[in-house]
Fold this sequence. Notes:
Number of helices: 14
CATH class of the largest domain: Alpha Beta
Number of strands: 19
Radius of gyration: 23 Å
CATH architecture of the largest domain: 3-Layer(aba) Sandwich
Amino acid sequence: MDKFVEYVNSHRDRFVAELQDFCRQPSVAAQNLGMREMADMVLTRFKQLGADARLIPVEGGAPVVYAEIGSGKRTLMIYDHYDVQPPEPFDLWDTPPWEAAIRDGKIFARGVSDNKADLLSRIQTVEAYLATIGPLPLKIKFVVEGEEEIGSPHLPQFAQANRTLLQDADGCLWEFGSKDINDRPTMSCGLKGIMYLELHAHGAARDLHSSLAAIVVDPAWRLTWALNTLKDSDDHILIDDYASHVRPPTEAEMDALKAIPFDEAKIKADYAIPAFLNDLTGLELLQKYLYEPTCTICGLYSGYIGEGAKTVLPNHAFAKLDFRLVPNLSPDLVVDLLRKHLDRRGFTDIEINLTETGEEVARSPLDSPIVRAAVDAMKAIYPNEPVIYPTSAGSGPMHALCQALGIPAVSAGCGWHDSRAHAPNESVRIEDYFEGIRFVRELIERFARLGG
């Protein structure tokens, strides 16, 4: 048996126990819960590895755990995050979110899939490599932040302040990835941008008796009317000049979609939906999913929403929206277009509250060495053919850390199609976890040979 695989197998129980320990430490950035404790755990694990590791403080934010190990002509950056989503609602978890329970061959915990399994498996890969193969064939720079789940507001600041530390990386392994509904490993070569904001409408100085709605403005209606101008019933975004800024996909980007096996029937069944929006299928469906922007109402609140009746005229209404962005749309541009759109329609009273700084679109060339190395590594490890997504439909701070510094990146990880990141009963399958370790070993070796 390969010495690397033999080492991993012989340390299997310890590796799993370490992952459980990572998951038992809460680290919720949104609630400032356990953040420094988790950063210290990651730092300690890097030092146990023999890496040159330290906490890099970021003014106003959680520290970044930075570690270097290995040497060679090529440098691989590995990005992960140690913060996780809030675990609520607790009553929907089959076992407590910080217990890291094992059942049915899976570990269930908040943050196990997003992103502690990927983080720790990459560290354990390096441990096993050093113990069985020898010195790494390249240099690895780990960047592990603590604010990804709240929009990484300070990562651009960190990247610019530490530009000379980071910019010599030839490629980056990003923080997420999973198998699809047919158990094919997937990877993506970019991310949509995002702008998250709130719209607020205000009425009287306090809630009033609803009989006064005959003569006093209802902010819930004001907000509803304003929201109704943003999209039509066919899901077209109607914000003035918005569509003119959307760069259509190139011929090469469309060709990339044709290679994606997207099992529409299984996905619809899994989501319990009869059809996708506008009954889209095939290439049109994938184009909308990956290459078109979105405008989503993530939450609405106004007045009384408890049990029973309360005849009240609310004094405040607000909605949380996110905009997923594609090339030529930036967070600042979206806010500017939205403000002008509302003002032209008489909604100058609708307040836009920016809760996050937004994230830029990130794309990496499909023929870059890091992408080719990842494809080859997947083919070497997984029994099923990998699926390469030219971009993810999700968002993250990839542009600030990678593309802005000229570093191509690829996302690949050890999740599965029902990992339920951000939801109750988040999990990873233990066998996928160990496959992920073997994949990272292959990626390291193949990227070192391919170069930058």
